[in-house]
Amino acid sequence: MIKVKFYSLFKINLKSSGEEYEFDGAITATELISKLDADYDGYFSHKLLEAGEISPGSIILINGHNVIHLNGLNSIIKDGDIVTLFPPSAGG
Fold this sequence. Notes:
By secondary structure, the protein is an alpha+beta fold. It has a single domain, classed as Ubiquitin-like (UB roll), CATH 3.10.20.30. It is built from 3 helices and 9 strands. The protein has helices at 9-14, 29-39, 43-48; strands spanning 2-6, 18-21, 27-28, 49-50, 53-54, 59-62, 65-66, 76-77, 82-86. Strands 2-1-9-6-7 form a 5-stranded mixed beta sheet. The radius of gyration is 12 Å and the shape is globular. The N and C termini lie far apart (38 Å). The model has no long low-confidence stretch (mean pLDDT 94).
């Protein structure tokens, strides 16, 4: 099982703290976002991605490690992993 945790505006806007998914084998971060998009009408691609890349300020963590420092959207997610999603933030 892969646990996906929503934080900040994701948690507020979706009225959910996350999801749990079962996949046959490992998946990529891109595949997880596609699954989330299917369940949330394209919400996550719109918020997390820009021109097929991670939007500036968006944070995707796999077991506490930022995918930017792993293999980007091709980072592998496997059974037992925890994925944490933060939308881009603004403010001052």
